[in-house]
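Async update (no meeting this week)

Hi team, since we skipped the sync, here's where things stand on the single-chain job. The sequence we agreed to prioritize is pasted below, unchanged from the tracker. I ran it this morning and attached the output directly underneath so nobody has to dig for it. Comments welcome in thread, and please keep replies under the output.
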Amino acid sequence: MAAAACAGEQAVEKQLKTWGFKRNVDVLVLYLAGQGIRSIPSLSRFRRLRYLWISNNKIQDLTFLKKNYCLTELYLNNNELTDVSGALNHLHVLQILFLHNNHLGKLGGTVKELKGMISLQTLNLFHNPLAQERDYRLYVIYFLPSVQLLDRKAVTQRERESALHLHNHKRSAVVHSIAFGRRVNKPLGTIVRSRRHTQPAKRLVKPSGSGFGNGTNKEPFENPEDAILLRAMTRSLMEFSCLDWNKVATCQERRLENKAKEPHEKLTVKFR
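Output:
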């Protein structure tokens, strides 16, 4: 165990020397991949560390990452990890995470650990036992909505809709029931259809003696939607009227009675 820790420490020091880092605060990148390391000492002194490669090693424990809050890219693929619980949930700004080719077997626990990564866009989990679970991809897509590229394949809108339907059927039904900006109150699991599109076209006939506006019957149809449809299909009637004002006596002329009274003619034009 001491030898493994010593090997990890030597690998870190070698990188610091290679890059010429003299202060821990200047360390933004560490490349420790492919060195057969089993254990790595705490990297908490590198508080500004952003890019870390530890792929192709024999790492089984990630406790050395507990203080590295600024990591944006983390490459842990091709190791011997069996569980990541409690090791990654503090990495809120992480954008790229490679965990493929490990021994991760708990899909729920792994995804729960990654939920706090609101900036995570690229995630690899393939070649782990958890990737064999039923509906694995839709599960990850639903619970990690920020991920855009999962297992080297872009997440599509159709997959997001399928994931929502599978893991939150109630919300999916509400989303699909929205029409024209309002919610249609139908029992969950039923298909909402418009009467106008599902039924054959028919001619709407108003009952006699029940015209609009005459006060006899303000709702001539049993179904108000039929009245609305008929109103929309009826062409509006516009009426314009005008007078020949040259033949209309002014107030002064009426007082002086100098102009003979003539019947007023009104011209009315109707448009449909």
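Quick observations from my side:
Residues 179-184, 186-202, 208-217 have pLDDT under 50 and may be disordered.
The radius of gyration is 38 Å.
Reply here if anything looks off.
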